[in-house]
Amino acid sequence: MVHWYKSGADVGAWPDIQKTDDWARLIVFGSHGLKYYEQTPIAINVEDPFFAFGSGMDVALGAMAMGATA
Q1: First to last CA, the chain
Q2: How many Å apart are CA 26 and CA 38, to the nearest integer?
Q3: d(CA 21, CA 17)
Q4: Domain for residue 17, yes or no?
Q5: Quick one: DSSP state of residue 29?
Q6: Is residue 70 part of a domain?
Q7: Are 35 and 46 in contact (CB under 8 A)?
Q8: Does this model's pTM top 0.70?
Q9: Could you give the CA distance from residue 14 to residue 1 in angstroms, rounded to a whole number?
């Protein structure tokens, strides 16, 4: 995923592994904010003031909404 992204994020070169159940998430943070890729070569932009991933996501989001850290 990193190689795909650094090589220009060509939709036609999307890694085949991403089309399976063994896919990975690529999280990109830059001057234009936070975005991530999952099973398609289309970036998902995050517009919320905070975000979390994984099994503890709900707890982390609740903590951050109340002013704590994840």
Answers
A1: 26
A2: 7
A3: 8
A4: yes
A5: E
A6: no
A7: yes
A8: yes
A9: 8
Domain annotation covers residue 43:
yes
Distance CA 53, CA 59 (A): 11
Total of domains in the chain = 1
Q: What's the pLDDT band for 27 if we cut at 50, 70, 90?
A: very high
Strand partners, 45: 35
Mean pLDDT of 22-47: 94
Confidence of residue 50 (pLDDT cuts 50, 70, 90): confident
Range of the domain at 31: 2-65
Query: Once rounded to an integer, what is the mean pLDDT over residues 29-55?
Result: 92
Distance CA(15)–CA(25), nearest Å, equals 12
Beta-carbon neighbour count of residue 51 at 10 Å? 15
Establish if 24 belongs to a structural domain.
yes
| Mean pLDDT, residues 17-33 | 93
